[in-house]
Amino acid sequence: MINKIGPSIIKAIYKPKSSSHKGDNGRLLIIGGSEKYHGAPLLAAKTASKIVDLVYFSSTQENNEFIKKMKSKLCEFIAAPRNEIIHITKLADAVLIGPGLGISQENQNLINRLFKEFPDQKFILDADALKMIKPNQLNKNCLITPHRLEFKTLFNLTANKLNVQNAAKKYLCVIVLKGNVDYLADGRKKGAVDFKINLTGNAGMTKGGTGDVLAGLIAALACKNDLFLSACAGVFINGLAGDILKKRASYYYSASDLVQEIPKTIKRCEDL
Question: What is the pLDDT of residue 80?
Fold first, then answer.
């Protein structure tokens, strides 16, 4: 039996209450960006800002000029200096680490500190963050989003269905293996691993930035939803948005187009 994710997954995700106030519907901290990679965290933040109430963004100290430029393009986030990350992590419902982050000892030390001081915080690890952790640091509050090479590098295993399930079970985490077919595994519970596949998406999504959109979407959903539900809903929505764009523009759309299509895609699934 193929356990395929379908549009009904959207009906299971959190919906804001009419009586809610600012902050009630999610606070996300994004740690990413570097002098080399400017666009990645911008795409993640743009996506997340459509889902949650508050998006905090923190980059490296030397990247302050980038933050100023970023804020001119996106007003729906709060710049967070490195020396405020610990305080903001206490406020956040989830923390996304990785989009455009860059590999450095400073960043690795920060990740290690956050893992040590906040064992109960939800962490979504993407891109370079996956190159600065060890598998034994993962736990039930971690969701990782590797592509095949990142999976092999992190776990020293070939990226396939069985190994995704085994790694999730061994390290008690949620894994989203990105590919032509996405494999998702939840190894946090006793007994069999919850495993699903996602078939939405197309070759137009090989363009740079689409993974950052996905990371921002999953992390935003994780603020108010279970990690595995967030992963399943995120990959389905992201891929379906790409499929809708393909019908409209063939393969000729960008990650920014994807960001704009995501809210419409969610609404379409809610109306089914």
Answer: 82
Is residue 237 within a helix (H) or strand (E), and if so which, with residue range?
A: helix 227-249
In the chain, where the domains are located: 22-143+196-270
CATH fourth-level superfamily of 22-143+196-270 = Ribokinase (3.40.1190.20)
For 11, counting Cβ atoms within 10 Å of its Cβ (0-12 exposed, 13-18 middle, 19+ buried), the class is exposed
Query: What's the CA gap between 210 and 266, in Å, rounded?
Result: 17
**What percentage of the chain's residues is helix, strand, coil (to nearest 5)?**
50, 15, 35
Q: Phi first, then psi: give them for residue 157, nearest 5 degrees.
A: -135, 150
Query: Which portions of the chain are predicted below pLDDT 50?
Result: none
Which candidate, 187, 176, 186, 185, places its Cα nearest to that of 147?
Answer: 176
Q: Of 207, 80, 55, 232, nearest to 143 (Cα)?
A: 232
